[in-house]
Amino acid sequence: MSQALLLAEAEPGTREFLARHLASDGFAVLGADAGREALELVERERPDLVLVGGLPDAPALEVCRVLREGEPGRSWDRDVPVIVLGQPQADAVDRVRAFARGCDDFLVRPFHYEELVWRIRAILRRSAKRPTPLLEAGEIRVDRATRCVTVRGRRLSLPAKEYELLAKLATDPTRVFTKDELLREVWGFRSVGRTRTLDSHASRLRRKLAAETETPYVLNEWGVGYRLMLP
Fold first, then answer.
1. Same structural domain, 168 and 85
2. Cα–Cα distance between 167 and 149 in angstroms, integer?
3. Do 202 and 121 share a structural domain?
4. At what angle do helices 35-45 and 60-69 cross, to 10 degrees?
5. How far is CA 143 from CA 11, 52, 146, 164, 216, in A?
6. E strands in 47-198
């Protein structure tokens, strides 16, 4: 069965070139030349992977952010793998921002088609090995298929990065995840310097969980990282 790819790219030459060769390599290619159209196709067709490049109505990073965070009244797989096709002038800052918004890979133009296909296949292999979508930690349940978090049976609404931090910690509730590990895997940082990003998100998540359960849950192991504290 062919794996479906959504190719969201406004430049006709690039879109036609990639669509033709990807189809020859056995992929079922869905095309979109605008951000709104891409989101509609993601919701309707449920592709296995999204390639997003230059679009007239939305930057690639904005499309990536919306895919991860969702939209009211819309439903799609928020964990769908995303590769951003960056512009030739893209630099390290652009790559970090793309990973922070949830992309799985970032390829700067001009790129070799063979390298793109290799990256697509590698990401699809990893996504095919996804673990069970339901995580449980004490009174917390995280459904990764719907990105729904419930605490004591009540739904808890979380922003994207707080959700991803909780889901990561819940994969192994008693394990201490290092700060460097969480910054790489949740925020996509390639190199980790001095930043309060993780600490501020963990603090907000701790307060929200404590308000529901009277248990802080998110425990800071000083100088190391974070884990979930089970009641």
1. no
2. 9
3. no
4. 30
5. 37, 26, 6, 11, 20
6. 49-52, 82-86, 105-108, 134-137, 140-143, 148-151, 154-156, 177-178
Tens-digit pLDDT profile for residues 103-162: 999 999 998 999 999 999 999 988 776 655 788 888 899 988 778 899 988 999 999 899
- Report the CATH number that the domain containing residue 207 is assigned in CATH: 1.10.10.10
CA 47 to chain centre: 15
Q: Which domain holds residue 84?
A: 4-128
pTM: 0.59
* Element containing residue 119 per DSSP (H, E): helix 113-128
Instruction: Answer whether 158's CB lies under 8 Å from 205's CB.
Output: yes
pLDDT tens-digit series, residues 109-122: 998 999 999 999 99
